[in-house]
Task: structure prediction
Amino acid sequence: MLEDDEIIREFLIESNENLNRLDTEIVDLERNPTAERLASIFRTIHTIKGTCGFLGFQVLEGITHHAENILSQLRSGQRQVTGNLVSLILESVDAVRQILSNIEASGKEGDNEFPELVVKLERTAADTSTEAAAPVKAAPVAAPAVVAPAIAAAPPIEPQPAAEKPKSVEIPVVKTPAPAQTVATAAPAQPETEKSSAVADSSIRVDVSLLDKLMNLVGELVLARNQILQFSSQKDDGGLNATSQRLNLITSELQEGVMKTRMQPIGMIWNKLPRVVRDVAHSLGKQIELEMEGAETELDKTIIEAIKDPLTHLVRNSCDHGIEDPETRIKRGKPGKGTLRLKAYHEGGQVNIEISDDGAGIDVERVKRKAVEKGLIRVEQAAAMSERAAVGLLFLPGFSTAQTVTNVSGRGVGMDVVKSNVEKIGGAVDISSKPGEGTTVKLKIPLTLAIIPGLLIVSGGHRFVIPQVSLLELIRLDGDALSKIEFVHETPVYQRRGTLLPIAYLNEVLKLPATKSGEACNIVVLQAEDRQFGLVVDGVHDTQEIVVKPLGKQLKGLNCYSGSTIMGDGAVALILDVLGVGQLSGALSRKNEGRRQEESSRTSSFQAQKQRLLLFKSGSFERLAVPLSLVARLEEVPLESVEYAGGRRVVQYRNQILPLIELATVIDPMGAAKGDPVETEGSPLQVVVFSNEDQTIGLIVDRIIDIVEDTVAMRRSTAPKPGILGSAVVGKKVTDFLDLQAVVETTGERFFAKNEARAIKTLLLAEPSGFNRGLLRSQLEMSGYQVIEAANISETLQRVENDPIQVLIAGAEFVTTDPSGIEKIKKLAKSAHIPMLVVSNTAAEMAARRELAPDFDDYQLRFEREAMLASIERLANSVNSFGTYGKASGELEKAGELIHA
Amino acid sequence: MQVSTFWVGKYFFGIEVIRVQEVLRSQKMTVVPLAPPVIEGLINLRGQIVPALDMRRRLHLEPRAEQTAPMNVIVRTEEGAVSLIVDDIGDVLDLEEENIEAPPDNLAPDAGEIIHSVYKMKDSLLLLLDADRTIDVSSTVH
Result:
């Protein structure tokens, strides 16, 4: 019995290997039918048939027998290779594969006996009349009659890279010619068998778990080596030094060698792609030629496995979206047959994989339109978006530009998954495209994960390792340079070549004791996803090759560490998770930072070109800016001419009553309360007068600094503050930009309302009832809003998370049916600064909801259209572009009155 | 049943001997910033990185006096070893099944969660720990 199991296992391993090759060979056969190829396919099928007959797998034997019959007819020239025939053989191969996996799982063939396939095979085999008996191109020496018996006598063990299912890999002991070549050139029977046995002798099967163990041991050895090296560097002992140097060299070589055993050529996963491409092309009526270059490029086994699915997806994508159908291609002056090129090569310790097609390229405008339609970005955003940024939209979750959803792609899951999978293993994805000429997707993948170079740093007396891949540069500031870390309110930033780099202090992030604030400061500039931030550490040591060890499950919840390692002295050091640390520190916001930056660049129409800015001081804001184009005049108002009207300060100004707003009390109430008196006796007030068509307003500031003309280098929303748009470098100094509208609005005035009101706002309509959704939606859309719908809690959460939303409108039904769900939504909306409006059917219901869930931003009746729209508009306008909003308490009271009325 | 015994505070604990991989003296510890307080740190056990749980915190007892060198009881788990930091080590004891009883109901809930039974000794009680629950600190993570 045991022996039987062993035989079956061998049979499975061998057959799986052969099957993987078969796919490629059969596709090749279709393109270029040669006798050798046919012979090789025939042989493989024959071998499987022979063995399964011996082991008593009857279904398998039946299918392979019929397939063999057809192949035999092909070989003898009774019929010709056609697309249908190839499809049929591929189908048989799939059936064989399925049965094999059944056998692997249960030891039995399974219940499916593939009757339809068998009938089809039988019928095809019997019916050779329809096809002209044109012979296959004859190979010079090949005598098919000789091949079959020779092989039957000695089933060849083809030196193919191992199948994935059986857990073993092939290790070439001697450098041998590429296996594929062996097969292709082996025309005559006799040399073929000899050659294959020679190759078989030079490689052995090794269990993957054994390799993993070896890898671990080598890891240990590397650590021990590091320890010895450290030790010997402290001792002045020639003998010890020499020995440890030798140990060093040997360990390095051993490490390299063992790593190599885990390396597999990327061709391993490319093998399957010809089949994929053929199937996709076939089903879409396209003609696609697949070219592969660098199939021998090697990667660590774990990485190979991790990129298998993303790669397949990208290839399908290119076939489906990239390459056009033949007619279109010919119309565009391209050959009817499209080309898909896969290329793998080493570059700078990484492996690059390029998937390029000569298809239509990415239609940037269409991508933008689609993103707007899906509510991923706004119209104004799309207009201002660079081509590169637009291509980046493809990676957003829920994006798919396929005109029609095919069974190949276009289900909206895809590029974002590709991106996250690749990033999970420390890689990166990049798309470049030329309209009409094609698209290239480039994956950058690290060679291995187990041993990585890392930078050793110290903070608060602890040592940490930062993976080298995340490291951009090191900055050391001392003396006067220290003052280059500026503060935008409480958030430290550093001006690095004209852009603002958010700064985090590692000891603060990890709640470690602060170190001496001293003469120097080290900033490690890090890259997390597509963002950068600076991490201030106490000391920077050298870089080392470190062996990554996972953290136990007790520490899994901490996302600021990605693992741990053992240092030269035997102590454990934690490996920092750059993204986690960035998020924890607040230097990278947890959510949609990229979008916000995008947005901030959009909000300021005055971004790119040079423009004139008025700089002034107010309260604790030393340097505020406002575009000069908005400013009507600068005035000095004598204190005694200030009067009061309606409890508000005003001044008579050019025959008008000019309302005055004291800026400091709005943007910095704390600072203003503390004193810092603006109005020192006798000196006049500094007033900046803003004016639109029919309204004028005066802002009292402390001091006018300057008027400058500058390009605004970069904008960032740091901790959002009411009345502040963001900050930028103006005149080489960090300057806050005043959000004039928000400032004016906080005082209850409406200003610029005319120009602003109809900027398109996106609303999220979370309503369980489809009827209500439809009704509200049409009302809202008629009022000029863009509306996204969500029918349940989870959809709502997802939308809030991913979409740029100004106001969330939630049906009151959620409050009663799923209080915990609505609580979740509320929390998320709060953190994203999205005001929430609860709508219900009757006033009584509304009162009840208010009691149940008192702290939403507003409550309205569904059918009080005017009141609801007013509320939405107010909530939407209270959100400035940086996401802050003032809670509209006035309206809440109004809603309360409405209930009582 | 054989148990490996140790002291934490004034309590005498036992853990099945087959679950105990080894017992070590005080080890060099790497503190993990931001980790739950019950995790005292990480130790390097011949190349394996092992989290160490402070049993005093686990049982909500007063912290150990400084300068006392604690011991490590290394417990095997499915996801690798975990070290329990205890005050002192006792002998391996052979227990008679008939003297093993369910823990009293009035046990503090924190302790009751990880003590699966109590063994009556001549003049004291041996508290038998459930190894898996002891190392599962997810409930103590706040």
Remarks:
- Chain B touches chain A through 26 residues (CB under 8 Å).
- Chain B has a mean pLDDT of 86.
